[in-house]
Amino acid sequence: MSAQILKSIASRRTIYALKPELPTELSIKNVQATVQSIIKDVPTAFNSQGNRAVILTGATHKAVWDSVANAIDSPAGKKRPESVRDEAAGSVIFFTDDKVTEGLQENFPAFASAFPDFANHSSGAAQIDSWTALEASGLGAHLQHYNGYVKAALGSKIPENWTVQAQLCFGTPAAPAGEKTYIENPVDILE
Ligand SMILES: Cc1cc2nc3c(=O)[nH]c(=O)nc-3n(C[C@H](O)[C@H](O)[C@H](O)COP(=O)(O)O)c2cc1C
After folding, report:
1. What gap in Å lies between CA 53 and CA 170, rounded to an integer?
2. Which GO terms describe its biological process (predicted)?
3. The CATH number of the domain where 72 resides is what?
4. Distance 53 CA to ligand 1 centre (A)
């Protein structure tokens, strides 16, 4: 079993070349079920369950990414959000719920300064687990951080106290991931 998990982890790559459709065997409900399961099962500090996510597809995905592109002045800066708008089938938007973090800070003041980091760590786990799982389902995906722009574009569609953490943009892979190099980075056993 662990060999299968390690294979999925190694197979997760940044894939920018996407077609704006889902592979035939997948529906957006499958994507939703995958992300829902991960949001449920990824651990959080004190089991506080402050991860949130929404999935954008169709007209809403296009409108949000069009708004992000329009909010950026430089032609070079617009390129990635425009490619997400035109080439991705959808995007998972990850959030952390500030009310949960603030509640932890009130209840456990000794750890107060650590809780924002803990929220970020758990969100990162949800992001990368989702990336791994969606690619294992046949999607290509890449991770973006247009957080403030996405928050502005979503407006009242999401609660004010949800902080945008990342966007996982997905579609049918149109080309494989680029070559990746690795440093020598041994994990030693100290006895
Ligand atoms: C925490 C984190 C933040 C990242 N932010 C971005 C980003 O904002 N834009 C982007 O294009 N890629 C982003 N990436 C993708 C990395 O550049 C990529 O994962 C790395 O180069 C390794 O390549 P791989 O994903 O193909 O293994 C991010 C990855 C991680 C883990």
Report:
1. 15
2. cellular response to oxidative stress
3. 3.40.109.10
4. 19
